[in-house]
Amino acid sequence: MTNATLGAPPTDEAMRTEEQPAARSALSRQRLASAWLFLTPMLAVLAFVAGWPLLQTIWFSFTDASLADLDAARFVGLRNYFEYVDYGDGTGEWFGLFFDAQWWNAVWNTVYYTLVSVSIETVFGLIVALVLNVPFRGRGFVRAAVLIPWAIPTIVSAKMWAWMMNDQFGILNDMLMSVGILSHPIAWTASPETAMWAVIIVDVWKTTPFMALLILAGLQMVPSDVYEAAKIDGVHPVKVFFKVTLPLIRPAILVAVIFRALDALRVFDLIYVLTPNNTETKTMSVFAQENLFQFDQFAYGSAASTLLFLVIAAITLVYIKAARLNLGGGR
Amino acid sequence: MRFGRAAMAVAATLALATGEVSAAELSIVSGSVGADIQELRTQLAEFEAETGHQVDIVEMPASTSDQFGQYRLWLAAGTDDIDIYRVDVIWAPQLANQFVDLRDAMADVIGDHFPSVIESQTVEGRLVAFPMYTDAPALFYRKDLLEKYGRKPPTTWEELTETAKEIQDKERAAGNGQIYGFVFQGAPYEGLTCNGLEWVASSGGGQIVSPEGEITINNERAVQALERAHGWVRDIAPAGVLAYKEEEARGVWQTGNAVFMRNWPYAYALSNGEDSPVKGKFEVTTLPAEPGSQSAPCLGGWNLAVSKYSKHKKEAIELVRFLSSRRAQKERALTYARLPTIPALYDDPDIAESQPIIAEWADVVEKAVPRPSAPTKRQYNEVSKEFWTAVNETLAGAASAETNLQTLEHRLRRLKRDGWR
User: Fold this and answer.
1) Is residue B97 within 8 Å of residue A296, measured between CB atoms?
2) Is B69 on the interface with A (CB under 8 A)?
3) Least confident residue range of B2-6, B60-64, B286-290
4) The whole model's pTM is what?
5) Which of A216, B79, B111, B386 falls 20 to 30 Å from B328 in CA-CA distance?
6) How far, in Å, CA of A200 to CA of A158, rounded?
7) By the 8 A CB rule, do B197 and B300 touch?
8) A183, exposed or middle or buried, with CB in 10 Å at 0-12, 13-18, 19+?
9) Is the pLDDT of residue A24 over 80?
């Protein structure tokens, strides 16, 4: 049964048959060759559109490149990461990304945003998935309807929410004030206390459907006879949920969480539109964009992008290890 | 004779044919605050009718900071999709390499414009952009409300604060619950650099970075000016002012919900529009200053630059010449209250009659304070960001003005290191 769910390790038997060289007939060799033939164009395109820009960004992070004249970039070593500048009068100062408080602020904002929003989305997504898993009239319609926030482009939903959260003309303040929760309008996207929460609210609204969809897929793999057995044995539904349902859909949840976390770690558009230039919500991507295109600091921005890439890669690896996820897929 | 006529017909056909060939398709990129795009479209239609060229507008968002990022990307990629860029007065040193030198092409008309504006667009002897209009903000005030409560237009920031507070409170008590005393641009972006610089400079706090490149912002007067501004938020200005740009401020003002507004003259024409609730109820004056200091409106304005990568440079320059011409500037002044860059137009009786703000603004423009884009060179945007961050955080009360200005000075020193680049 566990073999059917995503994330279960392949059985020993399956591994053995895969690795037997003697079993390689002419046919399988031919298949292998044609597989490579079909894969090559895709790999070439990947190398061109993903690999090459990545390498170039890493290269630029070791130069003094400026967007005004990229060809004139010179190699400067690790200066964009750390560098001691001696002022010549006995004093000096450390420069570079590692010593940039604004960069670390962006890192902290990103991590905070990811932790909070993905946690909330997982819980909400689970609840929505459980509801949608129960048969009821019009379920198909509701399933389609909850996907709407996910289907709207982020820029559009961010702009929409920006208007809804406007302090003077926004519907959110209007509603909260008319039911008496607020006594005076809140400037959701402007105040330092609420800016991050404004972003999280919109993100939760937008991506909970995505989480729900992935978890729902996991829920539907759970065979119904387990529940029937539990029912006959008279097990309390809450116990069924924690002892049966949750362990069985755990792989689906873990995959959903990593998808969302990767998305959240490189968030840009939502923050750029909803709370532009706000120190409270500036994430790593926004920091990199600012240096790359707004300031004359292309190399520094490249260094930030490189670190962003490394941070995401590291978190992914640690997560996969810790959650014992097998992304190779079970057989 | 017959031969002559045939030759003429051939020549005419040729001229027609070449005329058609030389009709280029140009594209101009422009930001969109207020009626910017509508205004440009009207004038481009005239240009198209006169020259046979086609001009497309590529529309950008309202925030200057957003526009700049996109322009820089296009220019770095060497795109020939855009022929003419409408550029902010502060960008010349940062984008100079990518634009055509207009000094020779415009030699005959350079002398008609304010020398200071031409100077601001000249980088290392190259004239990289040509003036379209200049800008200097005004303090808009509700004449009807000030009269109702027997107050005079303020000349000091203290007076502004008191008047705004009094009218706001009394109006609210009278049932006008939505009204606020003062709206300005408090969002963290280029516009806040203007607002902040105005508060500081008009309180004797000087510049952010002096023309000689010295960092002068961390001083007692500047601290006071920013603390005063912090006091406005929630007291006389809505809390949301921390996210207001020009249009958000105008939104509150033009629905009749503000006693005072700091904004550019474009808002004058729009607030006097047929459908405006505040039409005829307001007046403008110069921005306040502390006793002993001068009012310090921030010098703004937009210019036109021809991309080095354009395939139609000749026609693009033709368009720049058209849009910066005396005729086009007068038209824009009449309909949209744009401040001309040609001093002679400030005495024009037609303009004085339809947009009285312009005649009054001649010496405001002359006294306007430039942002430190010249001394800080290609690092200006970063300097400006550090400044607007410090100001925005002071307004929000994240830390005191004193702490923020100290941090700002430290950051600017780091940025400058051994000199501005």
Assistant:
1) no
2) yes
3) B2-6
4) 0.89
5) B79
6) 11
7) no
8) exposed
9) no
pLDDT at A88 (0 to 100): 78
CB B61 within 8 A of CB B69: no
| Band of pLDDT at residue B311, cut at 50, 70 and 90 | very high
Cα separation, A22 vs A31, in Å, equals: 16
* Cα R_g (chain B), whole angstroms: 23
| DSSP sequence for A54-81 | HHHHHHHTTB---TT-GGG--B-TTTTT
The answer to whether B381 contacts A294, with C-beta atoms less than 8 Å apart, is yes
CA distance A290 to A288: 5
Question: How far is residue B289's CA from residue B227's CA, in Å, rounded to a whole number?
Answer: 15
Q: Which residue has the tokens 């501005």?
A: B420
User: Which band of pLDDT confidence, cut at 50, 70 and 90, is reported for residue A89?
Assistant: confident
Distance in angstroms (rounded) separating the CA atoms of residues B411 and B239: 27
Q: Cβ of B240 under 8 Å from any chain A Cβ?
A: yes
In the beta sheet, which residues pair with residue B162?
Answer: none
- 3-state SS class at A231: helix
Residues of A with CB below 8 A from B234's CB? Answer: none
Closest residue on chain A to B388 (Cα): A277
Cβ contacts (< 8 Å) between B187 and chain A: which residues?
190, 276-277
DSSP bridge pairs for B25: B54
d(CA B201, CA B372): 12
B239: its two tokens: 């809390």
- A190/B242 touch (CB, cutoff 8 Å), yes or no: yes
Within 8 A of A70 by CB-CB distance, chain B residues are 76
What's the pLDDT at A325? 66
Rg (CA), chain A: 25
- Partner residue opposite A296 with nearest CB, options B188, B240, B378: B378
Q: Do residues A291 and A66 touch, judged by C-beta distance below 8 A? A: no
Residue A247 has pLDDT above 60, yes or no: yes
Task: Quickly count: other Cβ atoms within 10 Å of residue B40's Cβ.
Answer: 20
Q: Which residue has the tokens 């237009």?
A: B153
pLDDT band at A67 (very low <50, low <70, confident <90, very high): confident
Contact B239 A69 (CB under 8 A): no
Per residue in B198-220, pLDDT tens?
999 999 999 999 999 999 999 99
Q: Does residue B189 contact residue B242 with C-beta atoms inside 8 Å?
A: no
* Structure token pair of residue A74: 């010179």
N- to C-terminal Cα separation, chain A: 11
With contact defined as beta carbons under 8 Å apart, do B131 and B113 qualify?
Answer: yes
Predicted pLDDT of residue A156: 95
For A146-180, the pLDDT digits (tens) are 899 999 999 999 999 999 999 888 999 999 999 99
